[in-house]
């Protein structure tokens, strides 16, 4: 196999793996935001403040104590990006990497959480097809 084809196969395979990782991240985030695991907790927002993003935009970060019905002695604080106000109680679910996300309840947010994994999945399929095509291509 020529050196250029080996580079192409390795590049397409790396792109396939990156797209698969992005798909997995989108699926896991969607599962948390839709509370499909059923492990959402109540968070009473104790403080909210604006933070400046890396590109100049601002976002709101809120934190507050987690209220669970199973174990009230395990007091922990949840920190999440949410446009809320102090004293508000919201439902939040823990993501697999340990942070908290607010559970989405409106139609648009739920639709985005459901459809978001489709884009990287299409990229995974496309890059995988290119990898297989380049690997199977006859030598010139």
Number of helices: 3
Runs in which pLDDT lies below 50 for 5 or more consecutive residues are none
Structural class: alpha+beta
Q: What fraction of the residues are assigned to beta strands by DSSP?
A: 15-25%
Rg (C-alpha, Å):
21 Å
Oligomer: single chain
**Outline:** elongated
Sheet having the most strands: 6 strands, antiparallel
Cα end-to-end separation: 9 Å
Number of domains: 2
Helix content: 40-55%
**What's the helix-strand series?**
HEEEEEEHH
The strand count comes to 6
Summarize the structure.
The chain is an alpha+beta fold. The chain has helices spanning about 5-35, 105-115, 120-135; strands spanning about 40-45, 45-50, 60-65, 75-80, 90-95, 100.
